Amino acid sequence: MKTNRFVFDTNTLISAVLISNSTGRRALNTAVKVGALVFCEDTINELGSVLVRSKFDKYVSLDSRIDFLKGIKERAQMVGIISMFTDCRDANDNVFLNLAFDAKADCIISGDADLLVLNPFKDIPILSASEFLLHYS
Question: With a threshold of 0.85, does the pTM exceed it?
Answer without folding.
Answer: yes
